[in-house]
Amino acid sequence: MASILENRGVAIFLCLMFAWFKVSNGDVYKVGDSAGWTIIGNVDYKQWAVTKTFQVGDVIVFEYNPQFHNVMQVTHAEYRACNVSSPISTHTTGNDSITIDTYGHHLFVCGVPGHCQAGQKVDINVLRAPSLAPSPSSEVPSPVPTVTVPAPSRSDAVTLCALMQTISFPQWQYNLER
Ligand SMILES: [Cu+2]
């Protein structure tokens, strides 16, 4: 049987890799997937967005032909009205990576006349992690240390590494896989 120390060494390595990945790289989402950012094919960007769980740190990639499209971040009212007269920001490279660094709605439209109206608009909504974890303080302490990570995030990954030092490897592995 491999020594516990050996297992722990592997665990620490995997944990650090995991933490590094979560801290330095959010998930990358290409808007419209293979279709990209377009008006061809009537891509349902609303449907595309609601099937994703965006988190702070994620990168949203708009891929398009810059001769025909662009990306403008707009306010809620502008989004609804397809008003592109005063965008928050404008992206025009054809391969725009936008890192989402705040919670809430991030609203993007194409600024080419008629395109937003044709459906080239997307709402990247970053929800706050739900506070599902019941408070354990009032309950009878469990003899086995349990670690619940309700919604792993960047900082949770780091916390996980710290917690790992206090719990056995199989438990940690289980929790990592959640
Ligand atoms: Cu367009």
From TrEMBL:
Superkingdom in the source lineage: Eukaryota
Gene3D superfamilies membership: Cupredoxins - blue copper proteins
Keyword Signal: yes
Domain Phytocyanin: 27-128
Keyword Signal: yes
Entry-linked Pfam families: Cu_bind_like
Entry-linked InterPro entries: Cupredoxin (IPR008972), Phytocyanin-like (IPR039391), Phytocyanin_dom (IPR003245)
Coiled-coil features, chain-numbered ranges: none
UniProt entry keywords in alphabetical sequence: Signal
Signal peptide: 1-26
UniProt xrefs under PROSITE patterns: PHYTOCYANIN (PS51485)
Name of this chain's protein: Phytocyanin domain-containing protein
Organism of provenance: Rehmannia glutinosa (Chinese foxglove)
